[in-house]
């Protein structure tokens, strides 16, 4: 990385070239006060707090460090009477129109205005007016509370809404000292991500569920990882008196949870954490007595289960017992479950539950692992090809990274999708294809001769597809993001892209990128907002090359040209498979097959954390009757789900907040989940329950009840995890897993091409392409997917007014 | 949403710019001309018409003082209050109108005919004091000429 | 005295008709420019003329034009700043309503010089009637082949449109103007990049005042040297001044640069109204520091002389105040203006103007507190040079200069002082 030397307050320092002065100072330990500046947002220079004196080059006026790129030999003074007086004056100005109602403000204690007043203000009050601009406090969305009086008009919130979320749901209205954060009609309809609240430096925007709930200094804040989608965002979990009260990406002082999501979180990760304290939690073991499940002790429950399983194993053989887990369980849980199946039950049948329509990972990893892209790679890609799925709905962080890449780095987004996605607005080329036809794009990319026919199969214009192929071919780093819509041979063939569409040369790729940026600059800049925005709406990028989110880091690039993001469905879908909870592994049945075989080949099931009845699309009664056929059903659960209600024994287990361990996200990064609260009731971690069962059934895994021993076992058993430790992961955050790279020589190309052709041939070309615009509120698919858990969150309830048990979340309309 | 003539006019205006959004100020004038003020429906319609989002229209309307988001009188009596006019008695003119119409600054007569407004410099400083009624300028006004003017409008 | 821009004013608007304009020498510069000049030569000629921008900042126009990159990826634009909202200024109004073609011709030539095929006249919304005059004139120019495709067979195309503002002083600031023209809130942009490089829709853009552009045809006709010779060495040509306030005959007057201020007041304007005594003059629109009567005596109206006296020529809006004026009141009036017109973007201007006005309010009621005058001065100091755009400076300078020069008008407003005065009288 290129660096420059500059002098700050007489001391020589270095900083990355092109970095903003405010960040360069911070890297060198000189903190400059700020309100409007935020490293993830376009510069705005409105609060005037970060002013500095620049002597070389000599500039007559004080300059805002948040807009100055550093240059070699720059001489800067950040501490002088002149600078300090100006900062103090800005604070004084802000306070002159501020209620200073800290005693009743939720932000007090983590308020940047407070901090900076202490740090940089003066201890005098000259503005004694009773009539501040008095605007009434009001709630502006199910999750956002607004107290306009406290606003310092830094507009971080509106920029977050526009730049991160592409929503423009809140905006500035009025002007001058009457400026307000608001919206048309006064009610904000958005995807409820709540990021605007997190970045607000004052108590102007507040989380409704957290309002008047706690004072920040009473909170214990623990960084941990979200347990919903496969992106794996870090959250800062705030607990008080052993209760999990809130989840934020960054606390009011700008401290973030670290991790891969910077300051970003989505509605689900943020506003559902209270499910862990739901009144519906099962807090002690229960055993069936006739019609009823009645509470019992752990000892009784466990010995009963051990005995039953031993008996069935003895009678019908181990393979008559199946183990099903939920993909959100941590690696340690999955590993012990698999080991339990292998060594105790001696059954091959152990799998984490797959939804019918989940992305096909088996084919993807058939020949080893292609290069996997992390969020950082996405953000630094030259081209992004999105096939199937709508990350905006299902993997919000991935969607954020895509938008970031397009907006800040002029990445070209190519969308080939039968699913409507708001990301189309960012796309360089977006092609809506007929349902179930996504496989054809792979064929078109791999074999130009078949392109025209493939385009026809998709119901797309061949020229568009050709254009996409050209971009993919000429671009430097290409990230392919694919979701549920892609399967079988199409997924299997993905690694071949590297061969077929390798760039002519690095220079050619560079030239193509230049030419593209050039073409963007030829476009009229102020594009209409509901059309795709061009490179960047703000004029500053013309002088400041925007730094990466990771301050100072050089752009992350993969070694191969192509890297992939399989949009795995659940937080630990990938990890679960790697732990061996996969069908086919040792010839075992899939979870669905086990359910079908209930009463037949399968006599007993151990189900950990999955509500298989709920999951059964439409045929719940069928699954119920299947479960009824079992001799024995034991369920490890947090809630008395429909599945648990049918169990012979229900064992209460911990949620992600009460357990510790690791999970693997869709960027193949392993992350450490920290315990934030003690177990609710008598709940125990899944791995521990199974470990105890094993012991009772005569096998000691040798863990001595210690989680770290489980992980040690993992690192010793699975080469990908070799050398890792919980400690290391806890300190270093998301760590890439080193897979064996895919071995293209193993691929039988002719056979694969034939299968792919078969896949394309099966596409029903009579189906019309659905060109309907996106109308669903962002995130609604995400809500639906986890509704078995999220419906137990009281925080979320205001946004989902009529969610009855088992009913999917109401889909709200996205603002037009 | 607008009259056919105005729709045609707006279509023509849009052609002046490389992006539709630039036509938002003219479009808002049309809305105001038709409905007296910018209604909620106008905001939504203009957003749709110009490929903007409602908030982008709303933030624009509320920035510029010549648009109103609330009903106003048929005649907006806009008294310039800035220095050159003030030096030559703008305040007296304003007070005179207040008494004459029995309304305060910013208020509308009961019959919805007049709204009295104080505005900043109208660019007629050398012809002060100056009063603008809707788009019509009246220069060097006196209490007498204001009387005549208002009576003429009734 | 040679008049350049106002020669058709006596026709009281008849020159809005293209035929009258042509009969009086109009549309001769354009053919000449297209035939006899290379674009660069026009820029050179403008440089020679020592024409400085008439919008307020007085930036040399030729130099501004030469900043426009020759090769540009995006279309270039010429934008005429007809926002004219600076209190005390009404010159562009008359230039447009009495002689619209002069401006149009100037803009087409500027477009040719800069290689721009599109221009906009951003006119303040209040000037709706002038917008209509301009639109008629533009239509005539199209009809006669001065605008549109292949102008006068030269191969040069140029389209021109009028765009109305909607009540925002800040939209006179060139970058806020561009934002507004793009259909957004009128917040100024960060500079650099300057509009000449990245301006309207991202393309290189020259923003010039009406008066600046209206001069261009005359420079083409008579040469830059000629224009320069009308004024002083550094401030070329003539300038329009709007004189308002306490004078017998207020109005717009075109005088050569370097014309004595007192002559302007006494000759052109017929002296102070009612034969009263002069108290103060704001020489260049409300944003510039005020001058005392003494300071006015020897001042000549050109950029350098006014600057030497501690003020600025600004937009040429001369506001004259006689002895009856209370400088406290007039400064308060202007502070209200700036508070009302602050766009709200940056802290010092948004909150500072509000605070200033609050202090003024209590002082107006004669309830000023000891130290309030110093407070005003200090607040202005904390705005000055710290704001995002020049509006903050514009709000601060009048306050500071008024306090410095007319302190007694302020001191009277302090309650404490009143008590002292009353006691002394006892
Ligand atoms: C707050 C503010 C208001 C301004 N208002 C006007 C205006 O109304 N008319 C104008 O021509 N220039 C105005 N200007 C100056 C413009 O920014 C710009 O300098 C000018 O249009 C350039 O044209 P010129 O070079 O021909 O002077 C204003 C500047 C500021 C900072
Ligand atoms: S000084 Fe600041 S608030 Fe004032 S008009 Fe300029 S940018 Fe807006
Ligand atoms: S942080 Fe630089 S101006 Fe706000």
Give your account of this protein's structure.
The complex is a heterotrimer of chains A (816), B (154) and C (426). Chain A has 816 residues and is α/β, with parallel strands linked by helices. Chain A is built from 29 helices and 28 strands. With 154 residues, chain B is α+β, with helices and mostly antiparallel strands. Chain B folds into two domains: 4-63, Arc Repressor Mutant, subunit A; 75-152, Glutaredoxin (3-Layer(aba) Sandwich). Chain B has a four-stranded mixed β-sheet with strand order 2-1-3-4, covered by helices on one side. The model of chain B has no long low-confidence stretch (mean pLDDT 95). The longest helix of chain C is centred in the C-terminal third of the chain and has 18 residues, at 347-364. With 426 residues, chain C is an alpha/beta fold. Chain C has 19 helices and eleven strands. The chains are: A alpha/beta (816), B alpha+beta (154), C alpha/beta (426). Chains A and C meet through α2 and α18 of A and α14 and α15 of C. The complex binds flavin mononucleotide (FMN), iron/sulfur cluster and FE2/S2 (inorganic) cluster (FES). Residues 53-57, 59, 61, 64, 81, 83-86, 170, 172-174, 207-209, 212, 389-391, 394 of chain C line the site of flavin mononucleotide (FMN).
Please write the string of helix (H) and strand (E) elements of chain C. Answer: HHHHEHHEHEHEHHEEEHEEHEHEHHHHHH
Percent range of helical residues of chain C: 40-55%
CATH superfamily of the largest domain in chain C: NADH-ubiquinone oxidoreductase 51kDa subunit
Tell me the name of the CATH class of the largest domain in chain B: Alpha Beta
Q: Assign a percent range to the helix content of chain B.
A: 40-55%
Q: What sort of overall outline of chain B do the alpha carbons produce when their principal axes are compared?
A: elongated
Widest beta sheet: strand line-up of chain B: 2-1-3-4
Spatial strand arrangement across the major sheet of chain C: 6-5-11-8-9
Q: Assign the CATH topology of the largest domain in chain B.
A: Glutaredoxin
Number of helices, where a helix is a run of at least 4 consecutive DSSP H or I residues of chain C: 19
Largest interface: B-C, 43 and 56 residues
CATH second-level architecture of the largest domain in chain B? 3-Layer(aba) Sandwich
CATH architecture descriptor name of the largest domain in chain C: 3-Layer(aba) Sandwich
Distance between the termini of chain C: 58 Å
Low-confidence stretches of chain C: none
CATH class of the largest domain in chain C: Alpha Beta
Biggest sheet character of chain C: 5 strands, mixed
Counting DSSP E segments of at least 2 residues, the number of strands of chain C comes to 11
Total number of domains of chain C: 3
SSE-based structural type of chain B: alpha+beta
């Amino acid at each position: 990385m290129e660096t420059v030397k500059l002098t700050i307050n007489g001391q020589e320092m270095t900083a990355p070239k092109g970095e903003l002065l405010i960040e360069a100072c911070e890297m060198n330990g000189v903190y400059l006060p700020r309100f409007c500046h935020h490293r993830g947002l376009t510069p705005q220079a409105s609060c005037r707090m970060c002013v500095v004196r620049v002597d070389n080059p000599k500039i007559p006026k004080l300059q805002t460090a948040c807009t100055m790129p550093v240059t070699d030999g720059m001489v800067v003074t950040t501490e002088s009477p002149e600078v300090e007086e100006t900062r103090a004056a800005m604070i004084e100005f802000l306070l002159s129109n501020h209620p200073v109602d800290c005693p009743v403000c939720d932000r007090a204690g983590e308020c940047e205005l407070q901090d900076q007043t202490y740090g940089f203000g003066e201890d005098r009050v000259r503005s004694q007016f009773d009539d501040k601009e008095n605007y009434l406090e009001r709630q502006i969305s199910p999750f956002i509370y607004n107290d306009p009086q406290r606003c310092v008009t830094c507009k971080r919130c509106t920029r977050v809404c526009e730049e991160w979320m592409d929503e423009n749901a809140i905006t500035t209205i009025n002007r001058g000292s009457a400026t307000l954060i608001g919206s048309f009609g006064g009610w904000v309809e958005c995807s409820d991500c709540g990021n605007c609240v997190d970045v607000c430096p004052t108590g102007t925007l507040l989380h409704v569920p957290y309002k008047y709930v706690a004072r920040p200094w009473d909170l214990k804040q623990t960084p941990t990882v979200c347990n919903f989608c496969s992106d794996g965002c870090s959250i800062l979990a705030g607990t008080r008196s052993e209760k999990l009260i809130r989840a934020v990406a960054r606390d009011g002082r700008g401290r973030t949870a670290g991790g891969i999501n910077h300051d970003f979180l989505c509605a689900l990760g943020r506003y559902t954490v209270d499910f862990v304290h739901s009144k519906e939690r099962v807090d002690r073991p229960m055993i069936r007595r006739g019609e009823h499940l009645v509470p019992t002790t752990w000892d009784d429950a466990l010995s009963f289960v051990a005995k039953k399983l031993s008996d069935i194993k003895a009678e019908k053989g181990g393979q008559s017992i199946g183990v099903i887990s939920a993909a959100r369980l941590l690696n340690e849980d999955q590993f012990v479950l698999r080991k339990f199946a292998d060594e105790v039950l001696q059954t091959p049948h152990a799998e984490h539950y797959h939804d019918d329509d989940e992305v096909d990972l088996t084919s993807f990893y058939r020949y080893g692992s292609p290069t996997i892209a992390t969020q950082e790679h996405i953000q630094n890609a030259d081209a992004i090809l999105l096939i199937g799925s709508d990350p905006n709905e299902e993997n919000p962080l991935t969607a954020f990274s895509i938008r970031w890449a397009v907006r800040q780095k002029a990445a070209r987004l190519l969308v080939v999708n039968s699913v409507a996605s708001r990301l189309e607005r960012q796309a360089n080329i977006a092609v809506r294809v007929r349902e179930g036809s996504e496989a054809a794009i792979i064929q078109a990319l791999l074999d130009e001769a078949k392109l025209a026919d493939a385009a026809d199969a998709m119901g797309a214009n061949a020229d568009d597809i050709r254009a996409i192929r050209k971009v993919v071919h000429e671009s430097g780093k290409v990230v392919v993001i694919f979701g549920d819509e892609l399967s079988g041979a199409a997924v299997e063939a993905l690694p071949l892209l590297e061969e077929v569409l390798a760039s002519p040369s690095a220079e050619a790729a560079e030239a193509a990128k230049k030419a593209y940026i050039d073409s963007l600059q030829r476009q009229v800049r102020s594009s209409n907002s509901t059309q795709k925005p061009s490179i960047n709406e703000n004029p500053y990028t013309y002088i400041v090359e925007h730094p990466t989110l990771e301050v100072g880091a050089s752009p992350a690039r993969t070694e191969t040209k192509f890297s992939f993001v399989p949009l795995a469905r659940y937080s630990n879908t990938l990890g679960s498979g790697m732990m061996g909870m996969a069908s086919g592994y040792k010839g075992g049945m899939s979870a669905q097959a086990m359910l079908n075989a209930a009463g037949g080949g399968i006599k007993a099931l151990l189900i950990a954390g999955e509500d298989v009845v709920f999951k059964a699309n439409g045929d719940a009664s069928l699954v119920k009757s299947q479960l009824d056929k079992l001799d024995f059903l034991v369920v490890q659960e947090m809630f008395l789900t429909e599945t648990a209600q049918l169990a012979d024994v229900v064992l209460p287990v911990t949620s992600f907040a009460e357990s510790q361990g690791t999970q693997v996200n869709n960027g193949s990064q392993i992350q450490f989940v920290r315990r934030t609260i003690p177990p609710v009731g008598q709940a125990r971690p899944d791995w521990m329950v199974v470990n105890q069962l094993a012991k009772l059934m005569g096998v000691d895994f040798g863990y001595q009840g210690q989680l770290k021993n489980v992980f040690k076992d993992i690192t010793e058993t699975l080469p990908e995890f070799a050398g890792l430790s919980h400690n290391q992961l806890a300190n270093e955050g998301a760590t890439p897993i080193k897979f064996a790279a895919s071995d293209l020589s193993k691929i039988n190309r002719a056979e694969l091409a034939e299968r792919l052709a078969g896949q394309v041939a099966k596409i029903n070309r009579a189906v019309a392409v659905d060109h309907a615009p996106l109308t669903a509120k962002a995130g609604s698919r995400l809500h639906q997917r986890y509704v078995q858990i999220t419906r137990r969150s009281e925080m979320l309830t205001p946004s989902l007014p009529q969610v009855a048990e088992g009913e999917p979340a109401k889909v709200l309309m996205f603002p037009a | 949403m607008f009259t056919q003539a105005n729709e045609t006019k707006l279509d023509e205006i849009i052609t002046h710019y490389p992006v539709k959004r630039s036509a938002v100020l003219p479009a808002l004038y049309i809305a105001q001309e038709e409905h007296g003020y910018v209604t909620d429906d106008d905001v939504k319609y203009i957003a749709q018409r110009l490929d903007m989002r409602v908030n982008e229209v709303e933030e624009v309307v509320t920035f510029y003082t010549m648009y109103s988001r609330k009903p106003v009188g048929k005649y907006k009596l806009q008294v310039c209050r800035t220095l050159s006019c003030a030096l030559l008695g703008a305040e007296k003119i304003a007070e005179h109108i207040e008494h004459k119409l029995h309304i305060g600054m910013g208020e509308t007569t009961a019959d919805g005919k007049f709204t009295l407004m104080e505005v900043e410099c109208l660019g007629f400083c050398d012809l002060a004091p100056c009063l603008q009624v809707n788009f019509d300028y009246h220069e060097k006004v006196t209490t007498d000429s204001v009387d005549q003017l208002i009576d003429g409008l009734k | 005295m040679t008049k350049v821009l106002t020669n058709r004013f006596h026709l009281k608007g008849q020159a809005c008709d293209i035929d009258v304009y042509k009969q009086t020498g109009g549309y001769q510069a354009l053919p000449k420019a297209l035939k006899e000049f290379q674009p660069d030569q026009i820029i050179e000629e403008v440089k020679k003329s020592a024409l400085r921008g008439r919008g307020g900042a007085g930036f040399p126009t030729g130099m501004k034009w030469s900043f426009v990159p020759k090769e540009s990826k995006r279309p270039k634009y010429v934008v005429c700043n007809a926002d004219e909202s600076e209190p005390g200024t009404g010159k562009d109004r008359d230039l447009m309503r009495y002689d619209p073609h002069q401006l149009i011709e100037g803009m087409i030539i500027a477009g040719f010089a800069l290689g721009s095929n599109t221009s906009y006249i951003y006119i303040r919304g209040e000037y709706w009637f002038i917008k209509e005059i301009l639109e008629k004139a533009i239509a005539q120019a199209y009809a006669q082949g001065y605008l549109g495709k292949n102008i006068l067979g030269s191969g040069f195309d140029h389209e021109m449109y009028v765009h109305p503002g909607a009540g925002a002083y800040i939209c006179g600031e060139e970058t806020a103007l561009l934002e507004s023209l793009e259909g957004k809130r009128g917040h100024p942009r960060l500079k650099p990049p300057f509009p000449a490089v990245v301006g309207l829709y991202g393309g290189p853009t020259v923003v010039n005042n009406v008066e600046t552009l209206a001069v261009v045809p005359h420079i083409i006709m008579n040469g830059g040297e000629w224009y320069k010779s009308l004024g002083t060495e550094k401030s070329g040509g003539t300038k329009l001044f709007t004189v308002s306030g306490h004078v017998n005959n207020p109005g717009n007057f075109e005088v050569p640069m370097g014309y004595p201020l007192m002559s302007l007041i006494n000759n052109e304007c017929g002296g102070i109204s009612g034969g009263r005594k002069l108290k103060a003059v704001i020489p260049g629109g409300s944003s510039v520091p005020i001058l005392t009567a003494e300071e006015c005596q020897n001042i000549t109206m050109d950029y350098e002389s006014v600057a030497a006296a501690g003020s600025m020529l600004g937009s040429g809006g001369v506001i004259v105040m006689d002895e009856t004026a209370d400088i406290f009141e007039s400064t308060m009036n202007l502070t209200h203006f700036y508070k009302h017109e602050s766009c709200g973007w940056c802290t010092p201007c948004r909150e500072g103007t509000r605070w200033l006005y609050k202090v003024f309010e209590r002082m107006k009621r004669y309830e000023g507190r000891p130290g309030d005058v110093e407070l005003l001065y200090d607040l202005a100091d904390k705005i000055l040079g710290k704001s995002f755009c020049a509006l903050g400076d514009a709000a601060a300078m009048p306050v500071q200069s008024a306090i410095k020069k007319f302190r007694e008008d302020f001191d009277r407003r302090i309650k404490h002082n009143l008590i002292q005065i009353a006691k002394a009288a006892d």
